[in-house]
Give the backbone structure.
Amino acid sequence: MADKTRFGLTAVDTVPLHEKVYLELVRALMSGQFAPGQKLTSRKLAKELGTSDMPVRSAFMRLQALRALSPMPNGSMEVPVISAERFEQLTAVRTILEGSATELAATRINGNNLRAIRRHCNELTLAAQTGVIDDYLRKNYNFKFSIYSHCGNEQMIFLIETVWMQVGPFLRNLTMGFEDNLASILDIDYHEEALAAIEKRDGRRARAAIVRDINVGAAHLLQHVKFPETRG
């Protein structure tokens, strides 16, 4: 007879430390917590994360391979500063991948998940009205990936994440043109339209709203940001 005794123990977290560090840096890149051109050292990040240098260095190597970080001669890393051409290329890729993921997700999202997406949508609107760019970028990341995660295609999500690691830091420049009133960023934000379409399980409309959100935001950046001539 099987022993069904329970001891009230909590399951041990088996995710390796180096993987946790990597995922935390990925999240920070995608949610715009690092700025373009920012220098990153393993020692400083290790101190903030409460780890040794080794897992941070391991994460640096993986992120360099994905073009999310660029190596510097002194061994530290730099968040890439991208050119207008590269930004436009990344934007084109985003519209294809994120539009497709949204359309697929719209018919798969159930009641509990829809409530979570509604909450993220409301938090994103509030973050814009509050006027703190760090919070807005985190909430924007949370909202969009709360949709994409339901597309049913892990490879598509991986590709979206890879693109976001490159473009996420650059989205900090969305404040340009809205320096006195970040709430005006809602004029180029279509997350509420995307939510309304998802609530009706209208994949095509949801896709159109996300694509418009990406393209209008990109047009704003191309208008207001001074891009480097030769880098990235």
In short: The radius of gyration is 19 Å. The chain has two domains: 17-78, 84-224. The chain has a mean pLDDT of 91. The longest strand covers residues 39-40.
